[in-house]
Amino acid sequence: MAQVTRGRIKELMVKEEKRFVRDHPKSKKLFNRAKKSLLAGVPMNWMVRWAGPYPIFAKDASGAYIRDVDGHKYLDLCLGDTGSMFGHSPKAVVDAVRKQSAKGITMMLPTEDSIWVGEELSRRFGLPYWQIAMTATDANRFSIRLARHVTRRNKIMVVNGCYHGTVDETLVTLVDGKTLPRSGNIGPPVDPAETTRIVEFNDVGMLEDALATEDVACALFEPAMTNRGIILPDPGYHDKLRDLTRKYGTLLIIDETHTLCCGIGGYTAEHGLKPDIITMGKPLASGIPVAAFGISQYVADKVMDSILSDGTDESGLGGTLTGNALAVSAMRATLEKVITKKNFDRMMPLAIRFEKGVNDAIDDLGVPWHVVRLGVRIEYHNTPSPPRNGGEYEASKDYELEKLMHLMALNRGILLTPFHNMALISPYTTARDVDKHTAVFRECVAELVK
């Protein structure tokens, strides 16, 4: 096996950072200006996580490409970390937004589009009743409230290394068997051990032990982990998860926000899952902020009286702009004309081609890495075999190596998701784009093992 040394990583980082600074003078100037009015020089703090000494500033985007203020054009495999998974500014969505914005953006009233969206989500995901939210974070937060109301229990369960947005109860980590605030968690409001039980993904014994206390309102799970690399469930794991949550009276919430990459009904439809609640966000309106959560008949029956009460405007669910006409029109256009079987039929072979290209390069160059694919989402990681849970992933993660790989790709015209080595295939991505990434990946790994 070829070895990647720390010295080589440091040597290449110096070289690549010099190249980045040379090629991005306008972004540097804008960043220096931004630091005078924007905290950390960006409108949202995680934007500083991009590779390079400072973020590039975008000028425009279309389809599978982004152009920056310095005139560089990038193949975008990040796609807004799934927010633009189906491409930047699809024409059908742009047209719908333009039309609706002229008729009214937000009126705090339902539109016919909202009925179409509810019917379509029911058809795709199998749950009868739906509500709209602004973000997947909101959808998860609201669903947790519903679960606590239905079960009269306070605790929730998540897996170690999960990501469900900025929901306080989920920003946790497992250390020596203890539930602790995740590193970087700013101002956790309470000791997370008071609200959350945390288990390792794919560990059925640990799962049952945590549920057996019968104080867990809901298990909030991604069907496959996507924020610690792609970690797939073991065969039979979801059957056990469903059986045990039912056995101990815990509602099962499946977060499909990232796993919509599996098909038009997400992982749930592709694998026949039967959750009590489904949440999702990000790509549902092609980048317009909107999310949704669906509930079973059982949950609906338990919460309907409260939903219809006089105090529902202060229930902790929703907000003034939630379900606004503009967002729902964009959601309808996206579901009707963008997140389609036709597009997935085109995207899936390209994702397989991408996976094979990376895997062939890994084998040919002899590095002890692996690649995993989940629908049209692909990820590579610096271990010989895939981790089975978040703890194993964290123990193996090489932050310096990943940052270098991202910077080398950026300097060669490719954007990967900054938090990990994730790539998405959109309807606009071509075979030539996939092969470009393969060539760049091969070039970068070859440089590393010289």
Structural description of this entry:
With 450 residues, this protein is an alpha/beta fold. It has 2 domains: 192 residues, Alpha-Beta Complex (Aspartate Aminotransferase, domain 1), CATH 3.90.1150; 247 residues, Type I PLP-dependent aspartate aminotransferase-like (Major domain) (Aspartate Aminotransferase, domain 2), CATH 3.40.640. The strands form 4 sheets. The protein has a 7-stranded mixed β-sheet, sandwiched between helices. Helix 6 runs parallel beside helix 7. It is globular and about 65 Å long.
Structural class: alpha/beta
What is the helix fraction of residues, given as a range?
A: 40-55%
The CATH homologous superfamily of the largest domain is named Type I PLP-dependent aspartate aminotransferase-like (Major domain)
At CATH level 3, the topology of the largest domain is Aspartate Aminotransferase, domain 2
Question: Mind telling me the C-alpha Rg?
Answer: 22 Å
For the largest beta sheet, what order do the strands appear in spatially?
4-12-11-10-9-5-8
Beta-strand percentage range: 15-25%
Overall geometry comes to globular
N-to-C series of helices and strands: HHEEEHHEHEEEEHEHEHEEHHHEEHHEEH
Terminal residue distance:
13 Å
Average pLDDT figure = 96
Largest sheet: 7 strands, mixed
Architecture of the largest domain, CATH level 2? 3-Layer(aba) Sandwich
Low-confidence stretches: none
What's the total count of β strands? 16
Number of domains: 2
**Count of alpha/pi helices:** 14
CATH domain class of the largest domain: Alpha Beta
